[in-house]
């Protein structure tokens, strides 16, 4: 598998506070890559390093064949960048925004390219609409169009659907799938469970450390949790007992709970005969919470 990003022992500090701790990783080409973890874990900083936007203190790496320390300008020209908040010109129309960004990016035949891109993303019916008058979902599509107007090899998305409705999110992800299928590498920072599940590969970070790298199935198999579904009148008594003898990681409103280590289900059923207790697949949110505790 060809890798478009290779990092070795990357370190970065701000004001003597280390935010990236000796991270090494490889990113396969043409995949959707999810960077996940708590706020302040270093996700965006690491991606900014990959995209040539921030210098490093130590280590080495390459992005699309360019050195991240020596060839940052070449990296920047080969990526698309879309932030969570709308940062385009609200006093310009859709087509004006796209032509302006396309011209800055040095797109040849920019008029034709913009027309085709608007049709592809369904923006053509709003071409003469001021950006300020677009809904949240259409603003995100405009932001995406501006991020890919120069046909980048890599696209970075920072929580792109955090403030849009479910239908707009679905349509947006259909576009992401299409871009990935065409060979574009997508780097996405997200906290949404359903979006994490859509990624081909995941990198989990916490406090500047890379704690996991792999597929969703590998992540779901990596934990040491047992998750049980519990139904019955004496749930509160059962829960109190679990608090005493086990480290409970998460409790859900439907009365399933994830605990660290092994549970003897048969003994629990004998002790609490009025309860229905069964082992279920540990949900992704429990696995992520478990990682954040390390």
TrEMBL record:
Keywords: ATP-binding, Nucleotide-binding. The keyword Transmembrane does not apply. Residues 5-232 form the ABC transporter domain. InterPro entries: AAA+_ATPase, ABC_transporter-like_ATP-bd, ABC_transporter-like_CS, P-loop_NTPase. GO terms for molecular function: ATP binding. It comes from the Bacteria. The keyword Nucleotide-binding applies. Gene3D superfamilies: P-loop containing nucleotide triphosphate hydrolases (3.40.50.300). Belongs to the ABC transporter superfamily. Drug exporter-2 (TC 3.A.1.117) family. This is ABC transporter ATP-binding protein. It comes from Rosenbergiella australiborealis.
